[in-house]
Amino acid sequence: MHESPTSGNWNYPTPIRFGAGRIKELPDACRELGISNALVVTDPTLVALPLFSSLMETIQFGGVNCSGFSDIQGNPIGKNVDDGVQAFKAGQHDGVIAFGGGSALDAGKAIALMVGQTRPLWDFEDREDWWTRVDLAGTRPVVAVPTTSGTGSEVGRASVITDQTTHIKKIIFHPSMLPERVILDPEATTGLPAAITAAVGMDALSHCLEAWSSPLYHPMAQGIAIEGMRLVHRWLKAAVDDGGDLTARAQMQVASTMGATAFQKGLGAMHSISHPCGAVLGTHHGLTNAVVMPYVLEFNRSEIDDKLSLLARYLNLPDKSASGVIDWVLRLREDIGIAHTLADIGVQPEHIDELAPMALADPSSPTNPRELTLANVSGLFQDAVSGRL
Ligand SMILES: [Fe+2]
After folding, report:
1. Residue 386 and residue 348: Cα distance in Å, rounded?
2. For residue 89, how far is its CA from the centre of ligand 1 (angstroms)?
3. pLDDT digits (tens, 9 = 90+) for 138-165
4. d(CA 351, CA 345)
């Protein structure tokens, strides 16, 4: 198969500029949206790096005013969004540039949503038709520039924000939260350490894999999911092994956007488990998905045997059956240094009684291929904690 291009433009699900060096087009993207004074929402770890100061120079040199906001946590909380809204208003900004990993993108999108709302953030949780409560006139445009390749939040219509009073991760949703412009510049991801590259890359894989496995009917998402997994199969290890490999970085950016586009079809138990582990114990989202991935595939196997076999054939794995996919995941995890058990990342048997009901109630659970119950989710946790596969 021919290798994929490393630059281009496309308009699905939103206008995307893709290619090394294209971060320089950020001022143009702002102008297209009428942004003349941007609040740049970013991760606290990025704000001190040359990458961030160079970004601010690029924006200002291009004739757009800007100031930074980085008071956000790894798993952003409601207060981070409130503080960002205050900063937006204080600086008289007219749009958001969300620059960073999933936390910065999710926080930036939520800040842009909340700038002109009278209701609290939690009134816009992704339940029933709550999104219709949003006053569209009170939202502001977002340009998203991801610096990791995993969450794909740059093409998502939701943000995951933790309610700090209950420690529950909530999905805040509105169709207009889809950023109006995206710049995928692989040069912005080259500074990412190998371990984070591995963990977020596995998040991208989990999005594709759970969307592929979801029983919902969404033929477009199904096609996107399987091609996204081909890119992960081909490029994730290369991106982990050599962070400066711009081709691998570029293809993982595309895989990440594909995963998040595909999971409109639904997620499943990998995310059901990962969300409470992250909210209660602070485990890394992508890493947690990666750890639980083979256990969830084995758990769901009876329902997705045919889909996994088809995937094995598309990836041209040596064993073209469901077992071949599970073996591939296990080998990939090992090759890129992912732990094998939840216990290895701090989830212990005594946590299961608290975490299992939260996983069952997670919004990802209804689209898991096999129906989840408290008993089988607890069993899945026990297997993933102890390494029983
Ligand atoms: Fe995820």
Report:
1. 9
2. 31
3. 999 999 999 999 999 999 999 999 999 9
4. 12
